[in-house]
Write a structure and sequence with these properties.
The chain is of the alpha+beta class. Among the domains are: 10-132, Ubiquitin Conjugating Enzyme (Roll); 158-190. Helices cover 62% and strands 10% of the residues. The chain has helices at 2-24, 88-103, 111-153, 159-188, 194-200, 203-213, 220-236; strands at residues 30-34, 41-47, 59-65, 76-80. The protein has a four-stranded antiparallel β-sheet, covered by helices on one side. Helix 2 (88-103) packs antiparallel against helix 3. Residues 16-125 form the RWD domain. Pfam families: DFRP_C (PF16543), RWD (PF05773).
Length: 237
C-alpha cells in the first residue's frame, strides 16, 4: 500500500503540474507529447527575443520527460532546433545548467523553474550569437582590406615570378600571332595571285602584243597643214 500511495502521489503531482503549465503557456508554446503516467513528456517552444526582433534571434525547443518518481528525481532534459546555431559543447553546457537548476529544486515540481532558467540562458546565447556574427563581419572586412592592399602594393618581382610572367607573355604573344596569321589566310582564301591569273587566262599574255600589232592609219595631211601654218607665222615676223 505505501508503494501504491507513493506512486499515486507522484502521478497526482505530475498531472497537476501539467495542468498548471497549460494555464501558463499558450498552445503554440507548450505541447504535451504524452500525458500517460509514468511516461509523461512535454515540449516547450521558446524564442530568444520576445520583444524586439533582430537577425540573431532564434527558437529553441525544450524537451522534458518526467521519470516515475519525479519530482524526487530530476527529469530528462534535452534541447532541439539549435544544432546548426551552436556547438555541441555549448548546447551540452546549457543542458547541464538546466540539470543543476532541477537538482536545486528536488522534491518540488520544477518544470516552470527549468523553463525560466532556459529563458535566461537564451539571453546569454543570443548575446554570444550577436558577437559571433559581428566577429565574422569584422573578419570578412579585414580579408577584403588585405586583398585591396595586396592589389595596391603589387607582387614583388623575383627571378621566379619574372620567368613565370615571361613564359605567360610569350605564350600569349605566340597565340596572337598565330591567330592573326589564320585570319589573314582566311581572308585570302579563294583569291588568285597575279601569277595565278596570268597562267589561268592565256589571252592576257597576248593582249599587249595584239595592241601593238594592230594597224593604225595616220592622216599625214594633218601634219602638213600644221607645218604650213608655222611657216606663215615665221614669214610675217
Amino acid at each position: 500500500m505505501p508503494y501504491i500511495q507513493e506512486n499515486m502521489d507522484y502521478k497526482e503531482q505530475q498531472t497537476q503540474e501539467i495542468e498548471a503549465l497549460q494555464a501558463i503557456y499558450q498552445e503554440e508554446e507548450l505541447a504535451v507529447v504524452c500525458d500517460e503516467y509514468p511516461n509523461i513528456s512535454l515540449r516547450v517552444n521558446l524564442k530568444s527575443n520576445q520583444e524586439d526582433e533582430c537577425d540573431s534571434d532564434f527558437e529553441i525547443t525544450l524537451v522534458i520527460e518526467l521519470p516515475e518518481k519525479y519530482p524526487d528525481v530530476i527529469p530528462r532534459i534535452s534541447l532541439e532546433g539549435v544544432d546548426h546555431l551552436f556547438s555541441e559543447e555549448r548546447i551540452q553546457k546549457t543542458v547541464e545548467s538546466l540539470e543543476n537548476e532541477a537538482t536545486n529544486n528536488l522534491g518540488m515540481v520544477m518544470v516552470f523553474s527549468i523553463v525560466s532558467a532556459l529563458q535566461e540562458e537564451m539571453g546569454t546565447l543570443l548575446e554570444e550569437k550577436k558577437k559571433e556574427a559581428e566577429r565574422k563581419v569584422e573578419e570578412e572586412k579585414e580579408k577584403a582590406e588585405a586583398i585591396a592592399r595586396k592589389k595596391f602594393e603589387g607582387t614583388p618581382v623575383t627571378p621566379e615570378t619574372f620567368l613565370a610572367w615571361k613564359a605567360r607573355f610569350d605564350k600569349e604573344r605566340s597565340a596572337q600571332v598565330e591567330k592573326k596569321q589564320k585570319e589573314r589566310e582566311a581572308a585570302l582564301a579563294g583569291r588568285l595571285t597575279g601569277k595565278q591569273l596570268f597562267l589561268k587566262d592565256a589571252t592576257l599574255s597576248l593582249s599587249d602584243v595584239a595592241l601593238i600589232e594592230q594597224s593604225v592609219e595616220i592622216d599625214e595631211s594633218l601634219f602638213d597643214e600644221e607645218i604650213d601654218g608655222l611657216e606663215l607665222d615665221s614669214d610675217e615676223d
